[in-house]
Amino acid sequence: MKKLTFGAVMALIISSCTKDDYIPITSSLDSELLSTLNEASNGEGVSFFTLPESDDYANIPQDPLNLITEEKVFLGKLLLHETATGGNPKMSEMKATYSCASCHQASAGFAAGIRQGIGECGVGFGIRGEERVADTTVPRDSIDVQPIKSPTLLNVAYQDVMLWNGQFGGTGTNAGTEASWTEIQENFLGFQGVEVQAIKGQKVHRLQIDDEFVNTFGYKDLFDAAFSDVAENERYTKDNAALAIAAYERTLLANKSPWQDWLKGNSNALSDSEKKGAIAFFGKGKCYECHTGPALNDKDFHSFGMGDFENVNGALLLYDVNIDNVKRGRGNFTNNPADDFKFKTPTLYNLIDNGFYGHGGTFTSIKEIISYKNEGNPQNTEVPKENLASQFGTINLTEEEIDNMTSFVTNSLRDSELSRYVPGSINSGNCFPNNDYISREDLGCD
């Protein structure tokens, strides 16, 4: 990759010093990193990678059928954490013990703090969700456990489809896949993936938001404020609840991470090791070819041959889950063999907070997964070589470069203030994000 000289970078900066992407150059590392970013973004520079503020709705990608408003965001923030939404369990004693946030906790980077997220029939929490387990004394088909790692909700505004195989979403990336929507009729509503997932997820995860819920737990005024343009007899519905949840989710941006601070001009936000790691990430490591833009994720699907739940001890697989279909990733949705074993590019922010990596959670350290991609020996030997990503095993990073890149991903991309997105309380007064008896004790609610 051709690098700009320090003098050329200085000239570039001076000539554009009135622009928002001005970065003070205090070291040769800053100079090299800025030059690398400029090339990786085809000349757009740091602004190409910068996340907006969470209340800057005009600059947050949003669904044109669900414009973000303050009222929707406030309502959605409560609903995502409200354990009273857990109103349609298979086991009556589990009612109001779980919420969307059972698998998407702020303390775990808005993912699950465990390998498999557990909704109904999960018990316990720990500190960041890491001690939640399935209650195996109940019938196994009553346990709402995920057959694939729960993706983070951070930066989902930069995705137009949701789930690892991208099956949720009726526009953009999924245009032309209508023949695969038989089981996902919600896609025909024309919403993007964030909205479709919020609608579909209520049924899948046994949630219940309706007139009774709204009136029982004091949400009527909030629905009235958020959906004043909707006729009252159509206002208090699961679909509108989903639109509020989706609007809130779009504001969950890791915009207070050190990396974002550096992009906005604080050259002291990163250590020298992190800067070297960023240079490798956006240069020799070719990571930016998939992990790009403000959220460091493209809208595409790639295979790195990572393992699935079935090949790691301790996985809880349900009888009605066809693991072979899960393993096929995008291909199981599109029915195109070229898409087999390909999964959506995840954002890399706050990875360190949830502890399991890859769609099957088969890695437990960030360095481990970077080394794996560098070495190129697939865990899943079923993946055809032609389906593997071109970067897999071809980037030839040194051990020092791996260490520096690990430092960048671990530290620079961690927003340590995600608690700002969590409500102080929910309308029901329940414990949250879980309300089972062990979680209440763990969370100090009793």
Précis, in short:
This protein is mainly alpha-helical and 446 residues long.
Can you tell me about this structure?
By secondary structure, the chain is mainly alpha-helical. The chain has 2 domains: 6-49 and 255-412, Orthogonal Bundle (Cytochrome Bc1 Complex, Chain D, domain 2); 58-253 and 430-442, Orthogonal Bundle (Cytochrome Bc1 Complex, Chain D, domain 2). The protein is 29% helix and 2% strand. The chain has 14 helices and 4 strands. The chain has helices at 6-15, 28-40, 70-81, 193-204, 211-216, 220-226, 238-250, 258-263, 272-281, 323-327, 330-334, 366-375, 399-412, 437-442, and strands at residues 122-123, 133-134, 301-302, 343-344. A two-stranded antiparallel sheet has the order 1-2. Helix 2 (28-40) runs parallel beside helix 9 (272-281), helix 3 crosses helix 7 (238-250) and helix 9 (272-281) crosses helix 13 (399-412). It is globular, with a radius of gyration of 22 Å. Mean pLDDT is 93; it is low at 1-20.
